[in-house]
Amino acid sequence: MEDILLLEAIERYLAGGMLHEEKAYFEQLRKNTPEIDQMVVEHKLFLQQMEHFSDQKNLKHALHESHNRLIENGDVYEGGEISTKGLVVQLWNRYKRVTAIAASIAGITALTISGLVAYLTPAGDNSQQVQMLSRTMTQVVKAQNALGAKIKEVDSKIPSNVEITSSGSAFLIDAKGYLVTNAHVLKGSGAVVVNSKGKEFNAKIINIDNDKDIAILKIEDEDFKPLASLPYSIKKSNVDLGEELFTLGYPRDSIVYNMGYLSAASGFKGDTATCQISLSANPGNSGGPVFNKNGEIIGILSTKEASSDDVVFAIKSKGIYKLVDDLRESDTTVKKIKMPSTSSIKGKTRVEQVKEVSDCIFLVKAYNQK
Amino acid sequence: MKQEINEQLLLRGLANNDSKAIDTIYKDNFNMVQAFILNNNGTYDDARDIFQEAMIALYEKAKSESFVLTCQIKTYIYSICRRLWLKRLQQQGKFVVQSESLEETVSVEEDLEIHEKRNADFVIMERAMNSLGEPCKSLLEAYYINKKGMTEISAAFGYTNADNAKNQKYKCLMRLKKLFFTQYNIGD
Hints:
The structure holds 2 protein chains of 2 kinds. Chain A is α+β, with helices and mostly antiparallel strands. In chain A, helix 1 crosses helix 3 (34-73). Helices cover 38% and strands 25% of the residues of chain A. Chain A folds into 2 domains: 2-71; 162-369, Thrombin, subunit H (Beta Barrel). By secondary structure, chain B is mostly helical. Chain B has 2 domains: 2-107, Orthogonal Bundle (Rna Polymerase Sigma Factor, Chain: A); 111-187, Arc Repressor Mutant, subunit A, CATH 1.10.10. Chain B contains 8 helices and no strands. In chain B, 30% of the residues are buried.
């Protein structure tokens, strides 16, 4: 039992666990007892060996673990099969940074592209445009949109028991109140016309030629005061390609001016009765006059190509003469029509021309009995 | 300069048994050693043994108070491994081509001597420990290697109190010391 206590004391002494007084006493004991001194020295050596042993054992264990870890990660190869797990882990460890960077780049790119696409895509639905395009290719005739706009307002001169079916533009061919418009504008039994100042007049349909798409109206209203003369003439001969043209019409309730040029001497599908004009027109421009720069009417704006914006077609003014001439023989009222042959606005500025002719251009509202 | 600081940190980590430092040194140097051993009649197991022995030598050096590493870790490990492996080949009586190494080496003879002495001590202690038998071996390992307290040990080993455990430990220690010093003094 004493030996145990002695050894414990030696161990405490060597580990530096003794208090000052105890240590002094123990050192005194060592000096006086060679056996104890010898035991201390021996035990110190032994403990040192033990310490080394423990260190090395721990290190060997750590090295062994490290070795296995590295084999698993694929950093160390010792022959035999590389396990799939090892390979995957190895590839992952090797490329995880690259993968992360690639993934972020891909993500950012995708976001940027989708952002750009969303930003740059026109608001409209693309598929619909494509659909429309295919329809114009198969059913070409339908590609021409009638420019008659439907309106809903009910005005004073319009009988209360009717509904407005369509609207368009018309222009005087005789100062007494004879108007020309498109046949497709007059989809109804009666019509009223409104001048550029917003004043309404009752009008009577004199003749409709659906084949030529021309109609003649006559203003029959007490409020209408015939003009002394028309400022423009109606041209009999053809116009040249590239000639500058302008039009006035009613795509809205107020008169709208547009300009363009003659882009083809023939119309849709080579129709020689019409010509192709490049200017922007909208539903409601139908029946409006097309002027050249001298203030001569060269045609009646009638249709537009559905697939393109600025391609419109006008009935050549010759057709007006032809219709009037044809009607003269059968219809006595038409006989009275005297078409203007000279233009008084030639050489004037465009603003003056527009000012003078706009009095002669009317908004047509066709209606039907309910 | 940066690399130097890095290596100092690694060695300090190694001396403190830091597994991260051990992994890093292991990873950076093992393949080089393995290639050397494999190219010189060695096996994968030889490579592992030699390399781990070099790591222990490096550890001992890093732990010593007078430690100064005058070269890169890589050079040091390679030098030790090369020396150890050539020695082992000679012991096995295999033909060794004493070719001049293309790699840079440093003189490690002195370190290896210390290492071998320590290794011998380790083997003696290990042998003594193994011939102790249970539960002495586990008891002493728990106290001296795993540094557990006597109370904890007595609970773990099922002693009724710490004094009984102490008593048992004392007996075991006496046996171990006897076994160890018999071998140790012969070795000397």
